[in-house]
Amino acid sequence: MLHILYIIAITAEAMTAALSAGRRDMDWVGVCIIAWVTALGGGTVRNVLFGHYPMSWVEHPEYLIITAGAALLAAFIASIMTKLKKLFLYLDAMGLVVFTIIGCRVAQEIHLPYLIVLFSGMITGCAGGVLRDVLCNEVPFLFRKEIYASAAIVTGAVYIGVEHFHGSELLATILAALVGLTIRLLSIKYEWQMPKFVYKDEWH
Length: 204
Known about the structure:
This protein is mainly α. The chain is about 75% helix and about 0% strand. The chain has one domain.
């Protein structure tokens, strides 16, 4: 089930990434690259940091085909996607929790400390979006007011906590996904925001 949700998540991430590329007038190659970076970048950054190989898209090259195909499809139906913005926000929320749980699992498999397991989940869930925004010359979504990284942290913490107290992996996955998804969706509905740090004075 987690693998099926992962495929859905990377497809949705690739499609929304294509729109970001389109807003920057990128060609078809650029659209595909932005889609790959967004959908698969979080896991790639995690694996590079922890020396965990092979990359998921190297082991499963079909992920590259799926995400590129989804991105090109999105480019053709961009006007329709605009009308489905809310749906893709929900799919993005699902992707966040799925990527986070997978990131935690990978870190556990290589026996990293709990804090690093939590960090691995957050990186996997969020880094792809950061790379997308940087390449598209935008302030990363993660660093603005949205409840995003914090939702990933809570998701990872629930997953680790349930397993630590001898819950099954299935139970940990279900509870973490429900809690993380609830937080993210409520933050979208009620426009919850993280406190901002605003500093205007010049130092020179």
